Every structure is written in C-alpha cells, then in structure tokens.
Amino acid sequence: MHGLVTSLATVDSSWIQFDWSNLFQNFWPATFDGMTFGAIYALVALGYTLVYGVLNLINFAHSEVFISGAYAVVFTLSALGFGPNPPHLSLIAIIGDLLLACIAAMIVSAIVALIVERVAYKPLRDRGAPRLAYLISAIGASFAIQYIFFNWRSSNAEPAVIMFNPKPIFDVFGTIIDSQQLTIVIAAIVMMVATDQFIRRTRLGRGIRAVAQDPDTATLMGVNKERIIMSTFVIGGILAGAGALFYVMKVPSGVIYNGGFILGIKAFTAAVLGGIGNIRGALLGGLLLGMIGNYGQYLLGDAQWTDVVSFIVLVLVLMVRPEGILGSNLAKVRA
Amino acid sequence: MALLELNSISVHYGRIQALHEMSIHVDEGEIVSLIGANGAGKTTTMRAIAGLLGLSAGSIQFDGGDVSKTKAHLRVIRGMSLAPEGRGIFPAMTVLENLDMGAFARKDKSSMDADFARVFDLFPRLKERSKQAGGTLSGGEQQMLAIGRALMAHPKLLLLDEPSMGLAPQFIRQIFRIVKEVNEQGTTVLLVEQNANQALKLAHRAYVLETGHITREGSGAEVAADPAVRAAYLGA
Ligand SMILES: Nc1ncnc2c1ncn2[C@@H]1O[C@H](COP(=O)(O)OP(=O)(O)OP(=O)(O)O)[C@@H](O)[C@H]1O
Ligand SMILES: [Mg+2]
C-alpha cells in the first residue's frame, strides 16, 4: 500500500515538469516556428470564420476539406517525382511544381467544401432545420469523408514528399530563419490580406457582408443568397487548399485519412481565439496559437503537449472571452 | 394597365393562414395604400410580393408576367423594390455603401449616378451623412436611407412597409411628401400604413385589410369617407 503511493507520487512528479530554462533558451526558435504553424492554422481558420459569418454555423467538416487538399498535394507531387528525398531541380522548376500542387489542392478542397455545403447543409436550410441538425450533419459529413479516404488509402499514412531542404536566409536574435518558414509565413499573410481586401472591396465581397449582416434584406437588394453561400464555402476551401500545401511542406510525411482532425480543431481554436467571424482575428488567432503551442512544448518538454496546450487555450477562451480577442464578426467588417 | 396583380393569394405560416384568397392590383403610375390594424397581414402581403414568402395558393402577376415562382433576388431585377418593415439597414455599412447595395443587381452602372443624384436631392440629409455607419443613424434617417436604397434599384414598383412607423410628425410629413414626389417622377407605389389618415389622403386608391381578408376598396377619398373605416382607423 505504502509502496504504491510512493510510486504514484514518483510517476506524478516526473509526469509534469515546467522547464522554464528550456523555454527561455529556445524562445526565439519556438516563436518563429510557432508562427509558421500559426500561419497554416490561420489559413484553415478562415474557412471556419467565413462560413460562420454568413451562416452562423460551424462547419466541422472543414477539417476534411483541409485533408482532401493535403492528399491532393501528396498525389500531385508524387506524380511529379517528389519523394522522401528533396528533388534535384532548379529553383524555378520547384516553384512551378509547388504552384501546380497548390492549385490542385485549392481545386480539390474547394470542390469538397462545395459538396459538403450542397449535401450536408443546403437540404437542412431548405427545410428550416433546427441548429442542432446542422451540427450532426457536419459531424456526419466529416466521418463520411474520412472513411472515403480510409477505404481508398487504408489506414496507412502516405509516404513523405519533401519539397525542398530549408536554407538559412537570415538571423534574428541569434536564431536562423529558414527559407521554408519565410515562404509559409509570407505566402499565408499575403493570402489573408488578399482575402480581407476581397471581402471589403469587391462586389462578391459586398454580397457576402450583406448576407452576413441581414440575409433577408440582402435578398431584397437582389443578392443571390445561395450563390453567396456557395462562394463562401469555395473561398474557404481555396484557403484550406493553400494551408494544406504549406502543411505538407512543413510536415512532409504522415498524411492520413483522419489527419485533418487535430489540425481542424487547432484552426477552429485559432478562429475562436481571434474572434470567430473576424478575418483579421483568424490571422491573429492562428499566429498566437502557433506560438503558444510551441511555448507549451518547450516548457513541458514534449511535442505532444502542443495539442494539450492548444485545447486548454480553446477552453479558456470559450470560458473567459467567447467573443475572442478582436471580438467582432464578419457582419461588422467595414470597407 | 395593372403593373402588379395579386390573384386570390393565400399565405401560411406553418398551419396558420395569414392571408385568405387576397386580390389586389396596382396600376402603373398609381399610389395604392393598404391599411389595416396590427397583425392584419400587411407585412405578410409585402413579403409575399417581394418573394420572401411563398404562396400556398393564387398567383402574382408583375409587369406582364407571372412571378409567383420567381426567386426574390430576381424579382428585384424585374423591377420591384421593397423598403421593409424595420428598415433593414446594414448596420456596419456606411450610408453610401447601403445605397450601393440598393443598386447591387443593376447592370446599367452608367445611369446609377443619376439615381444617386436623385436620392441625394430627395434626402439631402443622406448626403451629409454619407460616410456614417448605417447603424448609427437616427430612426428617421434610417427610414430615409431605406427608401433611398430602394430607389437605387430604379424600380418600376416601390413597395413601402410602414415608412412612418416610429417617426415624429414632421418626419412623417416629409416622408409622405417624398413618396408623392417619387410617384410624380414616374414610380408606382404600394404603401402599407397604419397611419391611415395620411396614407388615404395620398393614395389614388386604397384597400383595407382585416385578419388576412380585403374588406374594403375604393379611391382614397371613398375609403376615407366610409363610416366603418372612420370609426376603426381614423379615430372618428
Ligand atoms: N414568422 C411568423 N410565424 C408565424 N406567424 C407569423 C409570422 N409572421 C407573422 N405572423 C402572423 O401573421 C399575421 C400577420 O402578420 P403581419 O406581420 O403580416 O401583420 P402586419 O399587418 O404587418 O402587422 P403590423 O402592423 O403589426 O406590422 C399575424 O397574426 C402574425 O402573428
Ligand atoms: Mg407589419
């Protein structure tokens, strides 16, 4: 009896330890690498946020929209001769191939997003179904897509596709920033700014904002609500496809049928953290969550903690500030 | 010639019937007022005309065609425009953006400037406030914006659902004067009002709606002179 208690206590004391010096020593690498993951979360988070803004609905099948894009990236690059070793290609050729993979992922993710909307949500909308029905339908769609991939690819992870070896570019506070981190963060930010401007400045963007603010009145203005809803899913899918390219760039091996789940929840957390429905909030939430997860990993000494920390963040935000940091939603976006 | 014709339309909310085989028509160039008490079905009528509510029976003819099955956003393109009850201003959009939304469906962007000028001419206040968020306008200003926005679609038929609701008397007079002016410029108007007195004075013709049934119709003056109408709606 006594021995058991002691051994439990031993397990207990080694189970969780705060290694502050590890965190401080690795603070800048943790920050920059966290931003890289965060940029990917942010791109996927936009899909949750845009759909929520227009339909007040959390599209839990968005994680499968993302993983479909990741499969598209892996298949395209494998077909182009990429594999476990970085290719011997010129820079231009690599960029061309990555663009091709990106476009393939965007198309596949957009199509999957559109199918989810038409099959899982549109029939419910036509019937004026209660809120809970959408949630259940979302979960059903999510499992359906996962098991389509399962039946096709079995439970094995896809082989690695290495796109290029990261090269050091410059150093900040003694920490090397490499070409991969730079590519991901810059490309993601450019895409998010473009999305933000698109929503603010274009005719379709105005239609999206109008439906988000008042769907009936938007219809009275001649806005085709159904088309706006479809466009929103397509835009979210395109961004998830881009996110999928960067995700595979960062984590080249292990794309698997249920691999969207964790990333999806993190992206959703990022969206909630920044303020769901808020485009700029998704960027902020994504970057913050990426960094927080990495700090948790160094503080607690194991990569597994990244996920735990992320979910604790989700629960805390929902408890303390459910409207998120930037708080507002798509309906309040001003031009 | 009838621009709008409702032929025995019925509308249900679930199993509750809100409109009972209702027939009205609005001729080109007219102002027609539809008056009735709270819950009579006035808003239901307007939403059915605009296409936000489906019919359970009957048909709607507009501008020479059957629009009963036409989607709401396409009816706008056909030439009708509703300033809804409660105004429906987009709160986060500026006055200018709200007006822009009114012209969302238009293809003839070149003649839009003329409509902006017309709206600012009718409502100089909107021009002063053009950069202000719609949600921060006063009730009267929001009503002006709702009407101005409906005019930006350059409609053949302007549908107004209780434009005087919640407004001070001088605002109400101004709104009614503007409705008259818009009509004189060539726009046909269907006006829903509880403010029966002024709505009947303004109207060429009028209908009285009671719990989903049309109970009286005639020229504005005839309906206003009807003893039952006077007792029920004009406080006389
Ligand atoms: N969404 C709805 N669901 C169920 N019943 C409704 C709905 N909207 C309206 N009704 C009912 O239909 C009837 C007509 O309502 P409507 O809004 O058309 O009246 P109204 O004449 O516009 O009244 P008011 O002058 O108060 O605006 C009312 O009895 C109302 O309770
Ligand atoms: Mg009403």
UniProtKB/TrEMBL annotation, chain B:
GO MF annotation, one: ATP hydrolysis activity
Alphabetical list of InterPro entries matching this protein: AAA+_ATPase (IPR003593), ABC_branched_ATPase_LivF/BraG (IPR030660), ABC_transporter-like_ATP-bd (IPR003439), ABC_transporter-like_CS (IPR017871), BCA_ABC_TP_C (IPR032823), BCAA_Transport_ATP-bd_LivF (IPR052156), P-loop_NTPase (IPR027417)
BP-aspect Gene Ontology terms: L-amino acid transport
Pfam families: ABC_tran, BCA_ABC_TP_C
Keywords assigned by UniProt, alphabetized: Amino-acid transport, ATP-binding, Nucleotide-binding, Transport
Span of domain ABC transporter: 4-236
Statement: the UniProt record of this protein carries the keyword tRNA processing: no
CDD domains reported for this sequence: ABC_TM1139_LivF_branched
Family statement: Belongs to the ABC transporter superfamily.
Name assigned to this protein: ABC transporter ATP-binding protein
Taxonomic classification: Bacteria, Bacillati, Actinomycetota, Actinomycetes, Micrococcales
